[in-house]
Write a structure and sequence with these properties.
With 224 residues, this protein is of the alpha/beta class. The chain is 44% helix and 14% strand. It is globular, with a radius of gyration of 17 Å.
Length: 224
């Protein structure tokens, strides 16, 4: 018997939103400002999809062998200030096909949920800048600020499931990073789908053993 999908949980930056890697470029700059030599590729490889303080800690540990909590907090403060400036001076847009995909899903009675490793404040800044509204473009927004455990823990997806009274097996997760795929699998989603429009390449996504990899959002409609 086919599983009835009732919800799709989408990552934001790189998946449904094209923000030209503003967040990771700003994070990279903050780490460089602190005197640690890491590349943007290092930042994307290790930190994509994570809650951003945890991303900084993971990058410092894996790429600079640094474990000092205060160093991470100082970099995070610099990052937060830089991100406010970057977003106020940058253009962002929906990924191609995002709004059409949302509309098609909602017409099928499938809830559209956004989730993100960003803080609630940053995520709200993004959706406001796009002019997206809850109940119109999307049905719910759940951020790293809303849960105790960020990705790859399943907390954000399980919170969404609880809010809409659906089972994880009725949910599809879509994201552009390995940690998105891991999050979906840890939640017990029907499908965890990678998309090649953001942080990680096809080969990087494939290493996480997703159920599918798509190249654009409208390909999702063929799978549901």
């Amino acid at each position: 018997m086919a599983i009835l999908i009732k919800m799709v949980v989408f990552d934001m930056a790189g998946t449904t939103i094209d923000e030209q890697n503003i967040v990771y470029k700003t994070l990279h700059k903050a780490i460089l400002n602190a005197g640690y030599s890491v590349s943007l590729n290092d930042v994307l490889e290790v930190g994509a999809g994570m809650e951003k303080l945890q991303a900084i800690k993971s990058i410092l540990l894996k790429k600079a062998d640094v474990t000092d909590e205060q160093v991470a907090l100082t970099i995070f403060a610099d990052f937060a200030t830089g991100l406010d400036h970057a977003y106020s001076n940058s253009e962002i847009a929906p990924q191609p096909g995002a709004l059409a995909t949302f509309t098609a899903l909602k017409q099928k009675g499938i809830a559209v949920v956004l989730n993100t490793g960003y803080s609630g404040r940053v995520a709200k800044t993004i959706v406001d800048k796009l002019g997206w509204q809850k109940g119109r473009e999307y049905d719910e927004l759940i951020t790293a600020s809303d849960v105790s455990n960020g990705r790859p823990a399943p907390d954000m997806i399980l919170m969404a499931a609880n809010k809409f009274n659906v089972e994880p097996i009725q949910i599809v997760k879509v994201g552009d990073s390995v940690i998105d795929i891991e999050e979906g699998k840890n939640a017990g989603c029907a499908m965890s789908i990678g998309i090649t429009t953001g942080a990680h390449t096809f080969d990087q996504l494939q290493a996480a053993n997703p159920d599918h990899i798509i190249n654009n959002l409208q390909e999702l409609l063929e799978l549901i």
